[in-house]
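Job type: complex structure
Entries:
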Amino acid sequence: MTTASDRRTAILESAARVIARRGVRGLRVEELAAEAGVSTALIYYHFKDRAGVLRRTLEFINDRAERYTTGGEPGAEPQESPKPREPLEPLEPRQELERALLLELQDDELVRENSTAWGELRASAVFEPDLRHDLAKASLTWVQAVADLLGQVQPMAPAGTLALAAERLTALLEGLSMRWLSGILPLAHARALMREAIAVELERLEHP
Amino acid sequence: MTTASDRRTAILESAARVIARRGVRGLRVEELAAEAGVSTALIYYHFKDRAGVLRRTLEFINDRAERYTTGGEPGAEPQESPKPREPLEPLEPRQELERALLLELQDDELVRENSTAWGELRASAVFEPDLRHDLAKASLTWVQAVADLLGQVQPMAPAGTLALAAERLTALLEGLSMRWLSGILPLAHARALMREAIAVELERLEHP
């Protein structure tokens, strides 16, 4: 049985796929309807307009990233297809920090699609200010989550210092991820650079 | 008098503008001809095909970035429009390093356009492998230039260590630049984060 919520999720999954493949400019409601196998009327019913689709897709992509960065394992073999992962045993704070950041750099189709779509949504904000508020909110939430993890490793570091380190680490991750996705940086090297950057920032927090 | 070389440059300037505004997917040879005020035949004469236009535009964007990161001044007032800058006095190695990196983060129309077009060209390589080779070469050249500057500040650091630090700094700069361009990170804050990252990496090179 297909519920309204299933159909809404199917539309968002299709939207993320289309944006990753054709960019935000390439997302037309008619094609999205075809891709999701629903009517355009249903899309307007759930999301009001194209801007609504974009906003909800951004949210969907973030929720999905949050799931795979807290539920997967950095050293695990690449997954063959998007599927729910088992939650893991609790980790030491430093391991948890590395896991959260390195899981964005893994050869998994869902991660590639999610990061590509996020990059396209962010790039679209250069000329269309509509999404800026939601993008800024999502970035802030992510920076804050990483700052919290850093604070668990270095509990004596001041909150402001943690936030700055988290901003650098997340921005670096976005830069490395873009280079990896565009095929100019091998994945293993991107991961090594990220791991080293975490070490550099943690050391700086320990000996300011 | 307009020379063939002037017209070629005018086409590349228009291509960078169109890519920044509409993405690589939005670049059609017919529209480029209209934007540059030339015939499509002239574009095919100079660049053979659309792929040739993209490759040469990438090169053009890189040359232009090299000019403004070696000829401008980080603390200068925002320029109102793209114009040639006076070459500056020679700087200390550390200042030169900061200048080269921070000049990518300035409120100048040319810098915005250049960085936006570079981001679009890189994003296009996710699905079209054509540009990967040229992108990788351009990235490598940039990383090597930053590694050289780092080496002038820390001459005892091994080449491999310098290259890794340069990779992190340039990837971070791309990440910060994208956040700034998409309107979710204030310019002054992006510059402060970058300056601090340079300090962190230099310290690490000094006390490995």
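Summary: The CA atoms of residues 71 and 86 of chain B lie 6 Å apart. Chain B touches chain A through 43 residues (CB under 8 Å).
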